[in-house]
Design brief:
3-stranded antiparallel beta sheet, alpha+beta, 6 helices, Aminopeptidase, 5-stranded antiparallel beta sheet
């Protein structure tokens, strides 16, 4: 397992095909389907394909992607957080999703801040964006808390609905 980041409470590591069962649970969570979208994944094999063609392929193409977020103590998987190079967006996109029992405990904010810092300090990113459904109040609050500012509504390729686009600029020293 390739660890990318560690925080006080969390380890963020690259996803592997062995994470397919957890990914299936996350992809079929009602909040994922409502706020992120139904990816049509309904089996462990489908989740393995999703991982191979999504996050794992992105590591090779861009050197970053979505990471599994685990507790430092016990390696309990909580969710995912990372950077995505999305078609239709010029800048890398911060994304995160957590299982219901791990929401509201600060894990998303802790991992999102760590990923944003990693993008800036290690990968040299000057600007990172994030998208949310207009009604995803919890994600909007989290993004604002870690320094993102609303810019505009956008419609991504292949999507019927507009989403909110937030951006965080790297601060000059």
């Amino acid at each position: 397992m390739t660890t990318v980041l560690e925080t006080r409470r969390l380890v963020l590591r690259r996803l592997t095909p062995q994470d397919a069962e957890f990914m299936l649970a996350l992809l079929t969570d009602p909040a994922w389907i409502r706020f992120i979208g139904d990816r049509g994944v309904r089996s462990v094999d489908g989740a393995r394909d999703y991982l191979a063609n999504g996050p794992i392929a992105m590591y090779t193409l861009h050197g970053f992607g979505l990471y599994l977020v685990e507790l430092r103590d016990g390696a309990q998987p909580l969710g995912i957080c990372g950077l995505i190079k999305r078609v239709g967006l010029d800048d890398p996109d911060l994304g995160f999703a957590f299982m219901p029992q791990f929401r509201g405990l600060g894990y998303a904010a802790e991992s999102a801040q760590a990923v944003l810092d990693y993008g800036r300090k290690v990968l040299g990113m000057q600007r990172v964006v994030a998208i949310t459904s207009p009604d995803n109040d919890d994600s909007i609050k989290l993004l604002q808390r870690i320094g993102f500012r609303f810019e505009r509504r956008v419609r991504l390729a292949g999507d019927d609905d507009e989403v909110n686009l937030f951006a965080a600029e790297a601060h000059s020293p």
